[in-house]
Design brief:
By secondary structure, the chain is mainly alpha-helical. The protein has one domain. It contains 14 helices and four strands. The strands form two sheets. Strands 1-4 form a two-stranded antiparallel sheet.
Amino acid sequence: MSDPAPTEASPEHHADPTASLALPVLALRGAIGGLLMGLANLVPGISGGTMLLAAGVYQGFIRAIAEITTLRLRPRSLLLLGAIAGTAVLGILLLAGPMRALVIEQRWVMYSLFIGLTLGGVPLVWRLARPATPAVAAGAAAAFAGMVVMQLGLGGGTAGGEASTTFLFASGLAGASAMILPGVSGGYLLLLLGQYEVILGSIDTLKQGLLGGPDFALVWEAMGVVIPVGIGVVVGIVGVSNLLRWLLDRFEKATLGALLGLLFGAVVGLWPFQEPIPPQPGDLIEGRVVTAENLAEIDVEDWQLSRFDPSAGQGAGALALVLAGIGATALVARIGDSGDGDSREDP
């Protein structure tokens, strides 16, 4: 006699909506989620974990990491991790430059779209968390409050400069830990640590070294940063993923409520109507005083931001982009929902 099918109340299956997806659909959702995750981690203020939630693969990702680290090598877990990691790395390597340029030059457009993508993850988590209980409400309130305090209370980072191997490892560890948590931006935390430009610059150097010949001198130069940061990222992802898996198994309602709070709280830091203000001599930018001599050397991405009142067209455009982001997330979430309903899992 076969084992009875898991019930909806089973924490492992209730918290993992990917368990019933057919393998091609699982790979497609993972690829979409990984690409969004990679792009999100290029932009301070945007959470990679939020994008995985939006794609509906967050719980499956956490579960797969936990299984891999305990040497339970299931084909579904390997497929999902491969799809997410592959497209995330590809997106970071190929689109780091264009994405940064779009955020700098079209900030209100991109942030409006990011708000929509973030809010689009709310129905996915709510479907897992319902019915509402005091634990869900308490988790959501605590996480939302924490996000508001962080977004309103923390300032920009300091200049990167030279960093020790140990500090680069710690930066990768902290950035990955934040990256896994929905609503907490790994890029933003790296900016606070002063390593955002250092790490992205090394990634761009690595890309140039690999695609330009290859140029092993450039590759070797980049590896001095990429290797310790990469090791920190792996350790951070493994540690936080296993912690979240443990929380979902034992405190499912409170944990899912906290994920809801993180999603809503992430929007606080994404007010789209901001524009960079050209620095003036005497201003302090990225830890150095602006002078007439170094003014031209300061990148636009390091300029201070100031809020502005949008025009009627910008307001309507932002609303349309928010709705487009929500719609895109809903479309991704529907992939496979009307499939064959095969909920069998590979041994």
